[in-house]
Amino acid sequence: MSAQKSRHSAGWYAGALVFWLLCAWLITVGLSSIIPQIFSPVGDPAADAASCAPALRSLRAELLEHVGAHIAKPHVPNAKDAAWFEDWDQRLYRARPSCTESERGAFTELNRLRYGLGALAERFEREELPHLDRLDELLGPEPQHARASTKENP
Q1: How far, in Å, CA of 11 to CA of 27, rounded?
Q2: In the predicted structure, residue 59 carries a pLDDT above the cut 90
Q3: Which DSSP symbol is given to 52?
Q4: Is 5's pLDDT higher than 60?
Q5: What's the CA angle centered on 67, arms 61 and 69, to 5 degrees?
Q6: What distance in Å separates the CA atoms of residue 98 and residue 51, rounded to the nearest whole number?
Q7: What's the per-residue H, E or C state across 117-153?
Q8: What global pTM score does this model have?
Q9: Is 133 exposed, middle or buried (0-12, 13-18, 19+ CB in 10 A)?
Q10: Cβ distance 94 to 40 under 8 Å?
Q11: Confidence class for position 45, pLDDT limits 50, 70, 90
Q12: How far, CA to CA in Å, does 20 sit from each of 33, 40, 52?
């Protein structure tokens, strides 16, 4: 019976050791990722600027241009669109620390605009693109002279 107790005890000790090693690993990984973010944030040099307004204006223009082009020449959403929005989101959030108190509202509005326009583009492709495709099908191919005049007069 003592041999059985010692096997049980060895298993219990092994399990406890694994548990504590896992806890130590989780604490180490957690602290190693949190501490640098608290004490030495890494970001764009532009984030040290006194204002985030120039970055927000630039991001606003890029967002409107991207979504406008997306609707003007619709296509099936792909990984490039998701990657573009992900990159845009990262740049927006890197600009946030340099926002003054009065610019925080602009940051919030631009963030809302991004999600609203992203949803608009998705909804356009889902609901209106079939109508546009049907219209193109009914009209047939565009005549050559119309394409040439469209290119000359945008």
Answers
A1: 24
A2: yes
A3: S
A4: no
A5: 95
A6: 6
A7: HHHHHHHHHHHHHHHHHHHHHHHCCCCHHHHHHHHHC
A8: 0.57
A9: exposed
A10: no
A11: very low
A12: 20, 30, 45
